[in-house]
Amino acid sequence: MTLWSWLKLFVALWLLRKLAKITGWLLVAAIAVAAWPVTLTAVFAYLAAWLGGWPPVRLYRTAAWTLLVTGAWLAVQEARLPGWAAARMPGRTWADGWRHLAAGPVADAFAGVAPVAVPAGLALGGLLWAWRIYAITTGLAGITASAPIMFDARQWRRQVRTAQDLIRAPGAVPLLGRGGVIPVGGTIRAIGHRWHRVFSIPDTACARHMVVVGSTGSGKTNLMIRLWAGWFTATLQRARTGQGYRPLLIVLDCKGGRDARSKAERTRRLLYGAGARRVAIWPDENRLNLWELPPQDLAVLLYQMIDTGTGNAAYYADILQAAVSLAVTAPCGPPPNTAAFLDRLNARWLQNAWGSGQYPGQFEHVQAAARHLPDIQLRYATLLGRLGPGLDGPGRLEEADAWYCILEGTREPSVAEAQAMALTELAAHAATALEGEQRAMLLAADDYSAVSARVPLSNLYERGRSLGIGVQVSAQSWQGLGATEDERYRIAATADGGVFVLHTPYPEPLVALAGMRRVLETAHQVTGNAWGDEGTTREQRAWNADPELVRRLDVGQACYIHRGAATFVQVARPRPSPLTLLPAPGLDVPDWLPELGREPAPVPGTGPATWPEPPGLDDVFGPGVS
Amino acid sequence: MNQNPFAALGLPARPDLTDEQVRAAWRAIAAATHPDRADGGDLAAYTAASAAYAELRTPWARSEAYADLAERAARGGDEPDTSPLPVIGGPGPVPVPPWQPLLAGWQLPARIWRGRPLRLAVRGVIAAALSLLVLHMIPGSAAAPADVFGLALWFVLSGRRDLAPPPER
After folding, report:
1. What number is the ipTM of this complex?
2. pLDDT tens-place string over residues A14-26
3. pLDDT tens, B91-104?
4. I want to staple A514 with a disulfide (CB 3.0 to 4.6 A). Which of A283, A325, A542, A544 is the partner?
5. Residue at which a domain ends, from B33, B60, B76
C-alpha cells in the first residue's frame, strides 16, 4: 500500500465516521422538528429543572399528573367519535395535529396537541435532565476538569433557593401533613430517600428515639419546636378519631436561662394554636408533685438525687440509702411533701414509726443509723431547698397537654441534674400508671448534655423505649451526646426515629450513619485546562451525607439521616394556622381535671387532706435531737 | 406475711401480673385507706395492702406468692383464680361529626384571605386568560376542554400552598 492510498483510506474512514455521526444528529434533529411540541415542552422542562435544581423525578411526576389532561382529551374525543379512535390510531391523530401547524399559527397547533405533547415532553425533559446529571457527575460530560464540582455547587445553590421559596408559602409546610406526617421543610436534596418537595417524617418517628445535633444558632430549636408541634397535632388528630391516646409532651430545657423562657412561651403559643388546652411551664408557673411516686421508687430517687461517693464513702452512702428508705416506706405511708420528709429524717420519729413491735428489723436499722440522721437531714434540707418548691406540688403531669420544664443546667448544674432525675422519674411513672387516662407521650430533652452527668443520655432513652414513650434528645455537638465515644455511638446508632444533623464542626461520626453509595468516577487525560479523548471509569464510594456539605450548612438547614440515606432540608419556621380554632369534635377535657396552678379540688375518697403530726411526737422535732 | 397478698390488693391470684398493675392496685387502696385521711382511714387495711405490695412488687416475688397460694390451695382444695385479667381501659373512639368536611369548604375564604391572596389572584388570572385564549384559538376542538381542564388542574395544585393551612393543621 502506498502512502497515498493509505491517506485516502484514512480520510475516507474519517469522513465515514463523521458522516454517520452527522446523519445521526440530523435524524435526531428531524425527529425533534417533527415532534416540535414535544421538543418544545422537553426543552422548557429541562431548563426549568436546571434553573430550579429540581431532580428528574419532579418532572416525571408532573408528567404523570398531566396524563389527567390526556385522559380528559380522550374522553372528549370518545364523546364525539365513539370507538376510541384517538387511542387506537395515535399516528393519525398526530398527523392531524401536524396539519394544524400548516394551517394556522404555532400557538394554535400547540394548543391542539398539548394534551399529548405536554406529558410526553415533560417525561422526555426528565430523561434528558437525568442523563445530564449522570454524565456530569460521572465525569462523562463537561468541558473543564472542574465541571462536576461546579455543577454540584451550582445545583446546591439552586436547590436551596427553591426550598427557601417553597417554605415562604403559607400553606406549603403546615404543622401536619396529609396522612399524619410531620412536614419539616422544603427538600433541598435527597440521597437514597424518596424525593418530595416538602420533606416530612411520619409521626411514629417521633414516638421512637430521635437525635438532633447542631451548634448554637444553627436552627436546632426551630426544628425541635416544629417536630413537637407536628407530633402533638398528629397525635391529637388521631385521638380525636379514636385511633390513639391524647398526647402528653414533656420538654426538658436543660440549659435554662432567659432564652429558655422565650422558647417556652413560643412553644406554648404554637401548641395552643395546634389544639392544646393546657401547656404548663415548670417551675415558673406550675408545679409537680414528686411525693406522689410509689414509696419504693421515691426512696430510690431521693437516694440517687444526692451525690454519693465511692470507696470509703460507699459506707455512708449505704447508711443514707437505708435512712431514706426507712423514712419513705414508714408504715404510716410516704411523706406528702418536702417538710414532712425532712421531719422524718429524725431518730425519734423513725423509732416511733417503726417501734410498734411489728418491724424489729427496721427498728434496729433506725437505731444503727440514728447518729447519722442529722447529717442526712442537713444534706437533704440543702438539696431540696435548692430544688425549690417546683417538685412539692400540687400538680401532676397528666393534668396538662404539655409541660415545658426549664432546668438551670448552665447556672446550677447539680440542681438541674437532680431535677432532671425527678422529672424523668415522674414521666416514667405517668407512662406506666394504670389509673387515669392513658396518654401517648413524647419526652424531649433539649441540650440534655448539660445535665447528663448523673443520668446518662443512653439510660434516658433506653428507659423511655422500654416504657413505650418517644424520646427526643438534642446536643450541640457529637461530643455533647455522651461522656464516652462508646456511649455516643450507642445513642446515635440506635436512633431508630432518625438523626437530624444541623451545622456542626464535626459531623463525621453522624454522617457515617447514612453510609455510602456507589458512584462512577471517570479519570480523563487532561490537555491544558480541558479534557482529552482518553480516560477510564471506575466504581468508587461516596458519602450519602457529605460531611463537607454538613459543615457548610446554613442556618435552618438540616440533614436527616435515616436507614442509610440522607435528605437535606430547609426547615420551615413553625407557625400555627392563622385561622380561628374550631372546637375539637367530641374531645372534652374531663371535669375532674383541675385548673393548673391552682390547688386541686378535693376529690372525696382520694388521698390525705393534711399530714397530721404523729401522736406523742410533739417534742421530738427539735433541732439536734438524735 | 399475708395469707393471700393478692386478695389484700384486690387482684386476681395470677403470676403474670405486671408491676404496674400491682402498683396501681396498691395506690388505689392506699388512697382510700390512708390513716391520715380526714375520716381516719383504715389502718388495718392500709397496713395489709402495704405489706402485700411489698410482697408482690417484683415478678419473682409474685411467682413465689402464687406458688405458695397454689400449694395451700392444693392442700385445702381452694384453687387460685385463673380468670382473664381485666383490660386496661383507655378513652373510647370519638366519632367525627359528619359535617366536619363541610367546614373545610366554609373556611376557604378565610384561608385565601389569611394566605397569599394576591399571588393566588395572579395565578387565577393567568389560568383564566390562558383558558380563554385556548377557547378562542381552537374552538370546537377536542383539545380545548382538555387544555382548560389542565389549566384548572395547574391552578388548583399550585395554588394550594398560597392558602393558609386549615385550623387543625
Report:
1. 0.71
2. 999 999 999 999 9
3. 444 455 666 666 66
4. A544
5. B76
